[in-house]
Amino acid sequence: MIVLGLTGSIGMGKSTTAGMFREAGVPVHDSDETVHRLYSGIAAPLIEARFPGTVVDGKVDRDRLAAAVLGKPEALRELEKIVHPLVRADADAFLARHREAGAPLALLDIPLLFETGGEDRVDRIVVVTAPAEIQRERVLARPGMTKDKFEAILARQVPDAQKRARADFVIDTGKGMEAARQAVHAIVAELTGDSAG
């Protein structure tokens, strides 16, 4: 089974692209979705213990947690030490299930793939990209997003040009949905040897 890693900076269209791989029949493990699940499950008491007042009704309150870690590199590192191993264990279990089922290809959607040294966990890497002005427009349109928040997030991410240089495949989501979908199908066909894909 080939393990494909999907990554890209904020606002580049990664979630949409992951959905296209799913539509093409590729099993997708979504790190963000996993974190969401962990925040209302096993991660909640661990996070509350380290960041008191961030859990409400048994679930991590993302706004409270953001307030506790944003702009505080040490706090952020501590949060990552709690969350990353849990997400990784979940992803490993996902891969084991699909390997067992005989899937030819599985995708790990990892927002911070390069930032967390995730290259070792995947066979090939897909980077989604878009022109900077499109990225900015998409991100600033998100509820609760500010220019300062956007800049803080960008500062923590490996620059887009470096990501593209380290990728096996690059999908430019600035060219529209149809072009992105065609690129996804081409990648799936290349990796599975299925030209009908």
TrEMBL record:
Positions bound to ATP: 11-16
Subcellular compartments: Cytoplasm
Pathway as given in its UniProt record: Cofactor biosynthesis; coenzyme A biosynthesis; CoA from (R)-pantothenate: step 5/5
Top EC group: transferase
GO CC annotations, alphabetized: cytoplasm
Keywords per UniProt: ATP-binding, Coenzyme A biosynthesis, Cytoplasm, Kinase, Nucleotide-binding, Transferase
SUPFAM superfamilies found in the cross-reference section: P-loop containing nucleoside triphosphate hydrolases (SSF52540)
GO biological process, one term: coenzyme A biosynthetic process
Gene3D superfamilies linked to this entry: P-loop containing nucleotide triphosphate hydrolases
Protein role: Catalyzes the phosphorylation of the 3'-hydroxyl group of dephosphocoenzyme A to form coenzyme A.
Similarity section: Belongs to the CoaE family.
Entry-linked PANTHER family: BIFUNCTIONAL COENZYME A SYNTHASE-RELATED, DEPHOSPHO-COA KINASE-RELATED
Protein name: Dephospho-CoA kinase
Gene name of the record: coaE
